[in-house]
Model the fold of this input.
Amino acid sequence: MWRVTVRALVVLLSAWLFGTLVWGWFQQNGDEKPRTQHTERPGRGSGDPDQSCFCHLTGVLDDCFCDVESIDVFNNFKIFPRIKKLTERDYFRYYRVNLKRPCPFWPDDGHCSIKDCHVEPCPEYSQAANSMSDMSECEQAKELGAINSTLSNQSKEAFADWARHDDAQDHFCELDDETSPDAEYVDLLLNPERFTGYKGPSAWRVWNSIYEENCFKPRSVYRPLNPLAPSRGESVCFSLSLCLEKRVFYRLISGLHSSINIHLCAEYLLDEGWGRSVWGPNVQEFRQRFDVAETKGEGTRRLKNLYFLYLIELRALYKVAPYFERAVVNLYTGNSQEDAATKELLLQVFNEIRMFPMHFDEKSMFAGHKMEAKTLKEEFRLHFKNISRIMDCVGCSKCRLWGKLQTQGLGTALKILFSEKEIKNLPEHSPSKGFQLTRQEIVALLNGFGR
Done:
């Protein structure tokens, strides 16, 4: 008898749950009009949280004949898996950088997130707001922004060997950080690019200087670099009055900014407790930076500029492939088997890149009157050099590391695109005097592209 009772109760409970679900569905959808072929898709400002950032990220990119969908398929299935393996190799995981270089444009603000900072109120907060919670946030930012400089004795001995090998090569360009006594190797796998707590006026001042003083920014682009500043009511459209070269420059810097922001949103500190930190995607932070409504329509353009940056660096890798395919080029770490495997993997990447059918055509740049083109090219170079120097003003060691690396990676890509004749005339079995890449430039180029 009790078995029958139990079965009856189960049937009644199942019927009640099913009825509740059906009634709830009708309540939610009862007022919705049937969709027809004339029903409009969610547009700008749509309340659909899953589509608000990406529904407009489609179709052909400006200034080239490539579309977003083709890039996604090519990158996700052909390039990214190989690049990920490549950047985990010893040659590409160690980056030599000087993180102690002083800011050349304004006094060091002593932001609490740098490695050796004193626990003082962050510049973002006034003295009156210097509560215990402010102090702990400052301490947290210090810890999150610190560089993990752990290296084994074996690695240190290998680096000395690498230096002797590199010094024996022919260099015909300024080596910058590589020659500084303050430069040191950093393990990029131990120092991933992610949120560190570095924010506020200190960070905004860096990007303000890049966009407002060193970038060919269209006046009509809305960019509230300081979220606390009132909007100036600028219209949201991309001015085509800029020449192609200046438009390309702006889009590259915007794409670099988008890349950095996306990685901070993807590796955000979600929780910290019980002796371990939990990192993961912060969707709300991502929407704040790229949602159509939140950014007054600029978010989709920022994401498209990231795709444009990808195309430029992809094109640079396509162009520089002959440099690495020569037998004289060795990705030296002292381990011949490791070196051969690393180069083979790099050549596989180049083979895949050759198969991409829609490369950016850089020949359209600087193609006008010779004197005007030469002046514009020099202006292009000086603007970018200034931006690379601004990265020394970043007050967080880890942010400075990845900012300098990605900026140098993009600078190396531009150097390649501007050196087509020199690359074509490379000798097969001897070092080149017309075109040369340093270890630092190679590591920055591939890791920047990997980002």
The mean pLDDT is 74. The radius of gyration is 26 Å.
